[in-house]
Structure formats: C-alpha cells, structure tokens
Protein: Helix-hairpin-helix domain-containing protein
Organism: Dactylosporangium darangshiense
Amino acid sequence: MKPDEPSFGWKLLNSWWVLLTVLGLGCLSGAGFLYAGFRAKRPAWWGAGIAYFVLSWAGVAGIAYYPHNSTGLHNVGMAYYAVWFASIVHALIINPTYLRRLAAQRPAPAVLAPPPVFRQAVDVNSATAQQLCAYIDPARAERVVADREARGGFQNVEEFAAAAGLMPHEFARIRALLTCTPRPRAPQPGGGRVLDF
C-alpha cells in the first residue's frame, strides 16, 4: 500500500452505501446512488439514483396492483428484480471511482517539521570558550580552546570533536550547529629543497 493510499478499513467504511442497494431489496437503491452522487459531486449518479428510485417504487406499486398468479404480476416482478440486480451491479462498478474521488477530497496528512534551531552556527576556530559553552560543558570548552591555540587551529569539526572528547551521540546532536574555517598551518622547520652533488 502506498503511503497516501487509504486503508482497507477506510474503503470499507466509505462503501456502506452499496449495502443500500443490496439489503434494501431495490427500494433503497435510489437513496444509495443519491448519497454517492451528492458526496462525490457527480450529477450523473444523482440521475441514476432518481431513475432507480422511480423504477423500484413503480415495481412495488405494480406488484400491489396485479392480482396474485397473474401474468402481469409475473412480468412486473421480473422487471423489479432486474432493476434491483442492475442497481447492485452498477453500484459495484462505480464504487471504486467513488472511493478515489473521496480520497482526493481528503486533507493531506500533516507533516511534522523539524523543530526550529534558534542557535546560530559557531565557527570552532574563532569561538571563545564562553560561546562553546552553549554546546559543551565549560571544562571541555576551556580545554578545547587551549588545544586549538596550541595546534594552530582545527582543520575540520571532526578534529574539534576529538579534541573535546565528544561521544558520537553528543557530536551528532551538535554537528549541524558547528562550522570550521581551517587556519593555514605554519610550515614545518627543515622543509626545503635537497640538493644532490
């Protein structure tokens, strides 16, 4: 089942009108089609509901009019049952379209947005210990600032996390709030060209 597709229970609950055609012995078929037509905004179904209503009640009147065991009673009875059977088949045919139209009218499910982040991202190479206290405890903040100055800055936020001794779950919680502008490292002594004679 697709995420936005209605559940089987929803479909079953909204198909109750088909029972009017089945259990109403034809007399309530028109009511079922009128209900479906108004609910799905389909005038053609209203027309079918009116036709089934008129035909079924005309059949009931004809059955009451003709005497018992007459040919007329037999013909009217057969026509009445034919209309009843036609209304059941018709209802079963249009019910999937009816359900699709109802599903299209349903409001879209609410999507929960992530909670807003009120803190602005901080650069781990320029933040003071006090600024870092918003993310880590004061002792770690002091230690990280001292380590940063000793090494000449961090190259990325992962170096910052290692220097702060952050556990993976702690780092994951604040990772989106940290940035790092790498500082150029001082050249190492002894670097230069070697001449071979």
About this structure: The longest strand covers residues 122-123. The beta strands are 122-123, 178-179. The mean pLDDT is 83. The first helix runs from residue 8 to 13.
